[in-house]
Structure formats: C-alpha cells, structure tokens
Design a protein that fits this description.
Blueprint (H helix, E strand, L loop, with lengths): L5 H15 L7 E4 L11 H19 L2 E4 L3 E5 L7 H10 L17 E6 L6 H14 L3 E5 L24 H6 L7 H12 L7 H16 L4 H14 L5 H12 L15 H21 L3 H29 L1
Parallel strand pairs: 3-4, 4-5
Antiparallel strand pairs: 1-2, 2-3
C-alpha cells in the first residue's frame, strides 16, 4: 500500500548501518549527471553513445538522486518512464573503474536504493539482474515497492512487509482538499451508472480521461490497481456487474511489477478498457437490481394469487 512508511523505515535502517560502520548519516540531494556511461569499445558505439548522451543530458540532469556515505538512492516514479536510459550507465558502470559508489565494509558494502520499484520497466529489471549476477558479493540493492519483486529477480530479495491502515502520504497532502485518484474513479463510475446508453460523445469523454492520466504521468500498473480497488469497493454497481468488470480487468497484460507496455500502446489500451467499463456500467442501469428483482417477483406472485381467488369466487357465484 502506498503511504505506509516504507521510505522512512528504509532510511531508518540505513542510519543504523551507518552507525555500525562508524559513519555519519546525512542524506543529500543532487542532480543525476548524464555522462556516467561506461567507455564504448568501438568507434561506432562511441559515436552512438555520444549522440545519445547529448540528447539525454538535459533530461537526466533534471532527475534528482539522493546519496549518503552508505547508499545512493533513485526514485523510479520521478524518471518519467525513462528509467532504462537513466539506470543503464549506472548499473553497467559498476566495477569498471570509478568506484564512486563504493563503501568501506565487506560484502554488499555498496547499497543502491530504488524507491517505487514496482514502476521499473522490463529492461531495467534485466539490467538489475545483470548487475546482481556480476556484483552479487559487492552490491546490495534495496527496493520500496507496493508489489512483490519481479519474478525474474525475486530470488535475490527478502520481502519485509510494512503494514498500515492509512495512506499517510495521501493524508498529508489531502489537508488542502486534494482528491485521490480512487475518489475520481469512484465519482466516474457513479456518474456513468446514472447516464443513458453510450454515444459517440462517450469516446470523447474517455479520451479526456486518458489525457488526464498521461499529463499527470500515471503509469499503466498504477491505474490498473486504482481501478481494481475502485471496482471492489464501489457501491454504484451490482455484484454481477462487479464480477464482469473484474473479468475484463483480468484480460489485460503487464499488470505486475517489472513489466512494460510500450508507451504508444497505453492510451489505446486505456481507451478500450474504459469504454468496456462504460458499457458494463450502463447494463447495470438497464437491468433490475437485486432489491427491484425481489419486489417484482413478490408483486407477480401476489397478482397470481389475487387472480386465482377472483376466478374461484366467480365459479362459486355462477354455481
């Protein structure tokens, strides 16, 4: 769960490690430089690397990293889906000359921290796997994640749960009246449940929703899990409709951590998903709900009983 205090717990443990090593623990933030790639081996690769570096230096320089005497930390959520380009030179450059991340204590002395690691792309997971295979005895990698570690690298990790019943981060920023994405989606389902059948205007509405997600840099995995929470707890839909929404959601790919959908496909998939939900929610309004169905059955039985009695009385009167 987000806002459970994972970052605070991790940094508290880092402070304990610094104390064991007799080092001060002070976290500083600095921009990540774009020229950290390892030296290329051929002239062609050198040319390609130089061009790529020139194109990405400005973007990389805007990403902040945290560092102390015992760790270096990166926030995947701040990398705007460019984590594979940002992390490649860092992970491949370990052990190749400049040991700027090296510690002074034996095994796993260099600690790399990745916050919001459930947003890692498939390529970044492969880079981390390669880094662990080549530097397993020298590097320790820590994650904070809302989902289990990706299957490919799970054997290298020990999961430590951090439980809470409240999203503390959301509570801190919601004091000014900021709504959570789950509130927005709850309101959307409630609105759709009261509307007539979908029309061509529904497509425009769904496109507007998708562009809201894109402008706020929401990831595919995040939206999928927001939708799952909303579907399970929403009161505007019936149980049959809830099951159908979950069935639709289960047919979509790449909903776990460490898996990537190409960015050009995400808007199309979101539009398809929300249009299916829109059709499903309308079918709820066009069908009798559980209470209405029971009332209808009761009224039908009562009408049949009255008709039977009227016929019986008429037969008695005639005879």
């Amino acid at each position: 769960m987000s806002g459970a205090g994972k970052r605070v717990a991790l940094q508290r443990r880092l402070a304990e490690i610094a104390a064991l090593r007799g080092l001060p623990f002070n976290i500083t933030m600095r921009p990540l430089q774009g020229n950290t790639a390892a030296a290329p081996s051929t002239e062609e690769s050198a040319t390609a690397t130089t061009a790529a570096t020139e194109d990405s230096t400005a973007e990389v320089g805007q990403i902040m990293m945290e560092s102390s005497l015992v760790h270096t930390g990166f926030d995947i959520a701040r990398m705007s889906m460019q984590d594979k380009q940002v992390l490649r030179p860092i992970l491949l450059g370990l052990g190749q000359g400049s040991q700027v991340l090296a510690g002074q204590q034996g095994r796993g002395s260099r600690i790399l921290v990745f916050y919001h690691a459930h947003l890692l792309s498939s390529e970044s997971v492969l880079l981390i796997q390669s880094c662990l295979e080549m530097n397993e005895g020298d590097v320790s990698i820590w994650f904070t994640s809302e989902l289990p570690a990706p299957q490919r690298i799970r054997d290298w990790f020990v999961e430590i749960p951090v439980a809470t019943t409240e999203d503390r981060s959301l509570a801190a920023i919601s004091r000014g009246g900021i709504a959570a994405w789950t509130d927005v989606l709850h309101a959307l389902f409630a609105k759709w449940s009261k509307l007539p059948p979908p029309t061509i205007e529904t497509i425009k509405e769904v496109k507007a929703i998708v562009y809201e997600f894109l402008m706020r840099n929401l990831r595919w995995t995040e939206v999928i899990h927001y939708l799952l929470d909303v579907i399970l707890t929403n009161t505007s839909i019936t149980e049959a409709q809830r099951r159908e929404c979950i069935r639709i959601l289960s047919t979509y790919e790449a909903t776990a951590s460490g898996y990537t959908i190409p960015s050009y496909r995400i808007p199309v998939l979101w539009e398809s998903l929300f249009l299916q939900f829109r059709n499903v929610v309308h079918s709820v309004t066009s069908e009798p709900k559980a209470g209405e169905l029971n009332a209808s059955v009761t009224n039908t039985s009562r009408s049949r009983e009255i008709s039977r009695r009227v016929k019986a009385n008429s037969q008695i009167t005639t005879s």
